[in-house]
Amino acid sequence: MRRILLAVVLLGLVSTVGLFTVPSVPAAQDATPAGEAAPLTLETLGTAPSIDAPGMMQILFRVTVAPGGVVPSHIHPGQIIVAVQSGTLTYTVLGGEGETLRGGAGTPTAEEAITPGTEVVFGPGDWFIEHPAVVHTARNTGDEPAVLLISGLVAADQPFLQPMEMDMATPAA
What we know:
The longest helix is centred in the N-terminal third of the chain and has 20 residues, at 2-21. A hairpin with a 6-residue loop joins strand 1 and strand 2. 20% of the residues are buried. Helix content is 12%, strand content 44%. The strands form 2 sheets. A 7-stranded antiparallel sheet has the order 1-2-11-4-9-6-7, with no helix packed on it. It has a 5-stranded antiparallel sheet with strand order 8-5-10-3-12, with no helix packed on it. With 173 residues, it is mainly β. The chain contains 1 helix and 12 strands. The chain has a single domain, classed as Sandwich (Jelly Rolls), CATH 2.60.120.
């Protein structure tokens, strides 16, 4: 009887110690590791064919440029208006036809022209109008994402962002 009791106690002790030393079964990861933010995201908020301008689309996008993100030189197939919702955007007109006009929070119309080669920094509430065929680039030199709202009337049969191979002008301070 003593042997049986001793065997049961030892077996229980070994089992108890074993429960605390057996590796646990891998479970689902508690959190997804932080990855690199995409340098640029384009979200379509709305598009519709224009009733007043056949062959054109009215567009509304939200663009997020991550800190350090660069938008390569490009043009758009129609006139757009860009409003900075948050963060900062450093914008440079490289050339092309037409002009870009800027406005600030509370201004009803844009009147100040941005000359080619000039680097302009936009912050929350700032906005600008860009004519078609204006070659430009932008980058986020800030520490937080730059969130832009873009609206415009663009050619329906062309891509919204048309890359341009062009030597970058040295921006004036």
